[in-house]
Sequence to fold (58 residues):
Amino acid sequence: MNPIWGPIAGGFIIAMMVTFIAIWLWAWSPGHARTFEALSRLPMEERDAPDDAGGERP
Fold:
């Protein structure tokens, strides 16, 4: 195996770690709190949409 693969693999792993940490910091920044709060309430909201099947639900 060529000895250049070690530094290339190490650089790739460091790049992936930096990317992961950057995305994590972006997602947990205070500016996203309102969006996350709204998304967390979606499963609890009731819909008044008519049934597409035209029949009653069991």
In short: The chain has a mean pLDDT of 85. The helical segments are 5-27, 33-41.
